[in-house]
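A.,

Following up on our hallway conversation. Structure tokens first:
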């Protein structure tokens, strides 16, 4: 073996971010069905990243099995007649997602903010319509903040969930800031209207 590569980790396959997110959901050590993974992603990932669709989750699970990062088995249902397929991360998969989390280049957040785009085009809208848009965004942000706050409480004190709990706290603070920014913009629009020449 070449001395320069001895001890170096194996190069990771070029998996999409969705694969690593699904593998990350499995990294907490539980056997999960595709339905469970969707439910978990809706409760956590969607608050700060995105929530993949059922079809994305199932296609990624197949990909992860093919790479040897996950295994699956059929289990008899507690109710109903159809068996359920559950997935578990493999040791190789845990090593891979740990390596990815440590070493993969970090994509900077890309701001794609619909209310800000509308505000930028505010000269084309009536002030009342702009206020409606910002008030709607404020309501959305407060709803997401409350959702994150509830999920932080649901996470409990189990140390397994310490970092997901911190991430949900970040999400809670982020949406609180979005709510407060919407309030500030509403106040700025009022001031702009008062100071506009000819009014």
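Then the amino acids I'd put at each of the 199 positions:
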């Amino acid at each position: 073996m070449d001395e320069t590569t001895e001890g170096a980790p194996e190069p990771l396959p070029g998996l999409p971010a969705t694969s690593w997110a699904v593998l990350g959901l499995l990294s907490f050590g539980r056997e999960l069905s595709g339905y469970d993974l969707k439910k978990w992603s809706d409760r956590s990932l969607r608050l700060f990243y995105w929530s993949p669709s059922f079809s994305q989750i199932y296609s990624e699970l197949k990909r992860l099995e093919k790479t040897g990062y996950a295994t699956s088995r059929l289990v008899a249902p507690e109710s109903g007649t159809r068996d359920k397929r559950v997935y578990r991360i493999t040791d190789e998969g845990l090593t891979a997602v740990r390596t990815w989390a440590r070493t993969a280049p970090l994509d900077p957040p890309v701001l794609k903010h619909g209310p800000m785009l509308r505000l930028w085009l505010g000269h084309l809208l009536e002030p009342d319509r702009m206020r409606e848009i910002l008030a709607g965004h404020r309501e959305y942000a407060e709803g997401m903040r409350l959702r994150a706050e509830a999920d932080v409480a649901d996470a409990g004190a189990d140390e397994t969930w310490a970092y997901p709990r911190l991430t949900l706290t970040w999400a809670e603070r982020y949406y609180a800031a979005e709510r407060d920014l919407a309030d500030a913009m509403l106040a700025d629009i009022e001031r702009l209207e008062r100071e506009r020449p000819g009014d």
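The first strand starts at residue 32 and ends at 33. Curious whether your intuition agrees with the design.

B.
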